[in-house]
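Journal club prep — side note

Before the paper discussion, L.F. wants everyone to see what a predicted structure for a comparable chain looks like in token form. Sequence:
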Amino acid sequence: MSTTHAAMGVVLATPVLAVAPELAAPAALAAMAGGVFPDLDVAVLAHRKTLHFPEHYWLAVLAAFPLAALDPRPLTVGAAFFALSAAVHSVTDAVGGGLGARPWVEDDHRGVYSHCRGRWIRPRRWIRYDGAPEDLVAVAVLSLPGLLLYGGPVRDLTVAMLAVSAAYTALRKPLGELAHRYDR
């Protein structure tokens, strides 16, 4: 789920609390956005291919983090954590299920597209599909820093993401089955 990736972004940004607390919220919010960004290709483009770059986002990370270290401002730190979260999102999509309308059937072997290799990386199915019960557990655990260590918009967005995640988990499989029934 995109919410899982956003929560993972907050986890990635949490060390900023210890180093530069005044930059922690911008880092976490940017990491949330970076965690969601690759999934903006889901509706109109080739999902897990158009905005997912398991290799290329790391180049942005390598450029952004030294800049943030040399000039630590909300914009530079935010850009670094946005890039890091988008990079981790693109890589971790390979541990989920395939892209089929009903990924629990395991009839699709596309995890995430590797532009460098020119082919799809197969799904590992550690989390069987987006919205699976284990995905809800993952987002709940990954949301702990956002709930316990932050206030304001980071905490508020984390609470909202948990609610969306629970609803999506409850509806994911029934809606996928219903869509499949009408596609035949």
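L.F.'s comment for the group: The mean pLDDT is 94. Keep this in mind when we get to the figures.
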